């Protein structure tokens, strides 16, 4: 692909040629001879600054005006923080030495800004970047299509986009207080949605019904009143954020009345409110002039056409190589699909294309000056050449200064230099943790629990079941920890004080899809039983064979063993072990050790592991690879002992005798096969350290057939909204956080949301990644430890839209106790469920039932009259009965 550089177009990026050596040697501030406004920006300092372009000059925006923009102007925004840490208006300016900084420069271009203003902003952005060493992340932000990072700077307070330009309306106009605009009637649209904590308030051209639509929320401001008008298709999150904005506007400046209006009820307002509305609009014209066309089918769930397009493009990622030749940029496709860090060369520049999601430009540290100068213009030319929308996000990053959202596009990413710890170093580190690890330490140090992925030290009570066609079959304590690859299991773990609960369901690699689905259903049922019996919401953990997390391994205290095939008959009486077998044992502590049955032949051995060999004739052997550690050997001995191994014969690699090889089933020729294979494995064992942090995503459209996610740049508890479902991606574990007010449909789809997230990750993630479902208010330390701070009482003052509306309208809010609030979603479930005839639900063959029927709770699908007829009581009364009594009544009715 050729990209020709010709005359500059509106919004074209223009680069400064200021030398990168223009900063003072101290690095404390810029010493640019061309732009005094940047003099307070330090190369090695954190901070936050906003500038506006006026008459092609950069003017500092006062702090009290941050977040207010004019659509006829262009702005520069600079944010600097320690790497992977949040930044914003509250970031304190301080010098940082010895730690890498992450510096972002955003160019915001208003929808009515001319090419001169936008070009000047781009030029000044490049000048600032060069003054700071040319290592900033550069963003192009177009009005209405701002990046989530940009919006996150102004979360809660929101951004305001006013009409016109400061140069045309006067310097007194830009005020952070929207109430200050009450001199006349004005119309604003409030844009918000799940996952976006920053409402965007945009002033519209005039106060007229033709600007209203059924899918939006609008505020009409007059000298005497504020009117909040809500379209019938507006998303719940948008209504809530608009109500909060309206309340803030009412409380600023001169007191004014606040009127809430639902679409279609304009003429039904009380006389006093009707009179206030007529100051700006004729309520009788609303039905005729409002844009009533319903939005796309997913609009009610907060998704618009762009969200759906980006959701479709989310898995997409293509790497292009850029080469400059004469006055042309030659762009050549390198590869599609999952990318690796090794695909990038320090001496080249690249474009990472994600379609409507955005375009990234990456510059190697050894590229020439011309590549740096033309990078953003090349990307803009690429967007035009590909026929993408003009608002497609464009971001430039440099080698070694990539933000987390770029690094996580790659399947593998390593630090600047490979990190290789010797086995001795690793063992020493692990031993140090082991000596300090106990339940109290994990409770008091959530960061440690998160790093180790542990619930506790495994000292709680566990009960294990095997999933069969007939239901759950209890596994005897003597066999606990021996799982079969052809089976599925459910484990209930009770730990801590006060007691907490976790339900694991383990899916064997060769088990059937039907059995795996049944295991998931049983795990959910066990979770409901725990909630009914104890009032505590259990976390639900999906675990696939070979991906067992430390939290599960710790429960078995290092004795977790995965055996081939299905469980033998006589589950409760026999040992369940074959007469001869070979186990590979990996791990050095109780919380990271697992063993797996491998083929009993020499080629299964490898130098980095310890193996337990049982021969029906020769007895028990412990084979220790030359790279194994003492701790690993001790854990292997524990595994052998738990399996019944006595009088172990310890064999070290290279010192094997003939009786060992005979027990392993191989003659002398097999020794050569082992030696070759072990060498290949050892040569492939080197790796790099993955430095990518955990990421937080809001699930959009979780209640609909569509699915999209939006990344929240800050991993903060404040981002966890009780109305939503969020995903915390910790690489080897996906946490799905379920808000207390999340819809029934979204709660039921929680696991599927995580799987869909993995499927659409451009980094080509493994679908067997551990998935943890957890409910608001019941978060274990291994989850809260990912957050810088955690306040269990943070949500006490949270108000839903209905509660906010009641406050604004002066109506009383029902005073529900905490317990009744927790029970309310369960009671509402009966009304929310699909209803079916009683005879259909009585069919014992569940394959005949509609797919929406919860086979464990068929009673929820009865009509109210059928429920009364069958049980002689209504559902709220039934729900208060003890669980054993509910089960008894359901069995009698044939619904169990």
What is the fourth-level CATH superfamily of the largest domain? Severin
The CATH class assignment of the largest domain is: Alpha Beta
CATH architecture of the largest domain: 3-Layer(aba) Sandwich
Radius of gyration: 31 Å
Derived from helix and strand composition plus strand pairing, the structural class reads alpha/beta
Main β-sheet: number of strands, strand sense, barrel status? 12 strands, mixed
Shape: globular
Mean pLDDT across all residues, rounded? 85
Instruction: List the uncertain runs.
Output: 15-33, 171-176, 296-300, 417-435, 675-687, 816-823
- Determine the number of helices (DSSP H or I, runs of at least 4 residues): 26
Helical content (DSSP H or I, runs of 4+) = 25-40%
Number of domains: 6
CATH fold assignment of the largest domain: Severin
Gap from first CA to last CA: 64 Å
Report the β-strand fraction as a percent range.
15-25%
Q: Strand tally, please?
A: 38
GO biological process, one term: actin polymerization or depolymerization
Organism: Frankliniella occidentalis (Western flower thrips)
GO molecular function: actin filament binding; phosphatidylinositol-4,5-bisphosphate binding
Domain HP: 830-896
Compact summary:
This protein is of the alpha/beta class and 896 residues long. 27% of the residues lie in helices and 24% in strands.
Helices and strands in order:
Elements: E1 2-4, E2 45-54, E3 57-60, E4 68-70, E5 74-82, E6 94-95, E7 101-109, H1 115-131, E8 137-142, H2 148-152, E9 159-162, H3 166-169, E10 186-193, E11 196-203, E12 217-221, E13 225-230, H4 236-251, E14 257-262, H5 271-277, H6 286-289, H7 305-313, E15 318-325, E16 328-336, E17 339-340, E18 349-353, E19 359-363, H8 369-386, E20 394-398, H9 404-407, E21 410-412, H10 423-436, H11 439-444, H12 446-452, E22 461-468, E23 471-474, E24 482-484, E25 488-495, E26 500-507, H13 513-534, E27 539-544, H14 550-555, E28 561-563, E29 581-586, E30 594-598, E31 610-615, E32 619-624, H15 630-642, E33 649-652, H16 658-664, H17 668-683, E34 695-700, E35 708-712, E36 725-729, E37 733-738, H18 744-748, H19 750-760, E38 770-775, H20 781-784, H21 801-808, H22 818-832, H23 838-841, H24 864-871, H25 875-879, H26 883-893
Helix pairs in contact: 4-21
Domain HP: 830-896
Pfam family, one: Gelsolin
GO molecular function: actin filament binding; phosphatidylinositol-4,5-bisphosphate binding
